Amino acid sequence: MIPSSVPLVVVAADRLNLAAGRELARSLGLAFLGPGVAAQNITPFILSLSGEGLALLSSEGHFGAIVCDFTGGRIRHRYHHGGGVGQAIARAAGIKHTSELLIADLTAGLGEDAFVLAGLGARVVMVERHPVVAALLEDGLRRARQESSNVGIRAAVERMSLVAADARIWLATADQPDVICLDPMFPERHKSALVRKEMQVLQRLVGADHDGDELLELALERAQYRVVVKRARHAAPLAGREPTFAVTGKTTRFDVYSLRKLPSSVE
Ligand SMILES: C[S@@+](CC[C@H](N)C(=O)[O-])C[C@H]1O[C@@H](n2cnc3c(N)ncnc32)[C@H](O)[C@@H]1O
Fold it and tell me: Were both Cys, which of 43, 148, 178, 235 would link to 231 (CB 3.0–4.6 Å)?
């Protein structure tokens, strides 16, 4: 079942993807439409499967296709020119040198933050509970593993794994992560002009995450060294809990809850 009020159908963009599209629709509990049907007349949100992969299309607000793409565009640019271990998220997670930290990103979304951390050497377990977001993420990982000609990017996605589950349940049985990252969706993000269109569509699909406070408490019980919470720059800290310290970027702040000193080889 899709935990969302947004109407959504799966569409196979061509005959080659009929069987796979039908199977995806079945696994997500969604209606399926074959090629040639004008799905946009039926619903504003379409999950389209083509030879190029899985894309979330929305006719609302003139958004482009939303795909999980680790090999091109903004994510690739950030991989090459984002600032390496000097980036706010890397400093917050404690990666000062390429490290072997095991990081759990409990609110994976489309995996952008996770990819930055994996690109710097961490092993990252991504946990995502929304089945459509998890399907997009899985598709992005698969394509990057199969198609990327860049050795570094391929190695980074090999360090990433995906668990399609609610992190609150996953945490109870998972191996202890060194660092846990959280970035729950907040309703107030709607108001910010700085929010990328991609994130706005994701927001429509996923809705607000009302269990962020609970997730923080669980994360603080389970992480070995630290918990990192991504917030809008001026937002109050999650659960009203003051962090040990914060790393502030242009629009974002990373609140760091330090539990133990990181070993010097990774700090
Ligand atoms: C703001 S997005 C994260 C974006 C992500 N940081 C990135 O870089 O792409 C929040 C995501 O966390 C997921 N999420 C929220 N709470 C969760 C939970 N308890 N377990 C698993 N996923 C969760 C939502 O479904 C949503 O896709």
Answer: 235
- Render pLDDT for 42-61 as a digit per residue (tens, 0 to 9): 777 899 999 999 999 887 65
- Residue 125 carries which side chain, given as an amino acid letter? V
* Torsion angles phi and psi, residue 231, rounded to 5: -135, 160
Nearest CA, atom 25, ligand 1 = 130
The count of C-alpha atoms lying within 13 angstroms of the C-alpha of 214, restricted to the half-sphere facing its C-beta, is 8
> Could you tell me how far CA 183 lies from the centroid of its own chain?
9
Q: Which ligand 1 atom is the nearest neighbour of the CA of 170?
A: 20
Centroid of ligand 1 to alpha carbon of 14 (angstroms) = 31
**Which of 10, 3, 116 is closest to 55 using CA atoms?**
10
- Of 89, 115, 129, the one to substitute when testing ligand 1's pocket (max ligand atoms within 8 A of C-beta) is 129
This prediction has a pTM of 0.92
Tell me which of 58 and 126 has the higher pLDDT: 126
CA 109 to centroid of ligand 1, rounded, Å: 4
Domains of the chain as residue ranges with CATH? 8-62 (no CATH), 73-258 (3.40.50.150)
| pLDDT tens digit sequence for 219-261 | 999 999 999 999 999 999 999 999 999 999 888 999 999 999 9
Around ligand 1, the residues with Cβ closer than 6 Å are 106-107, 109-113, 127-130, 133, 166-168, 183-185, 206, 209, 211, 215
**How far does the centroid of ligand 1 lie from the alpha carbon of residue 165, in Å?**
11
Tokens standing for 83?
């600032």
The residue type of 124 is V
Are residues 108 and 162 in contact, defined by beta-carbon separation less than 8 angstroms?
yes
- Report the C-alpha gap between 52 and 55 in whole angstroms: 9
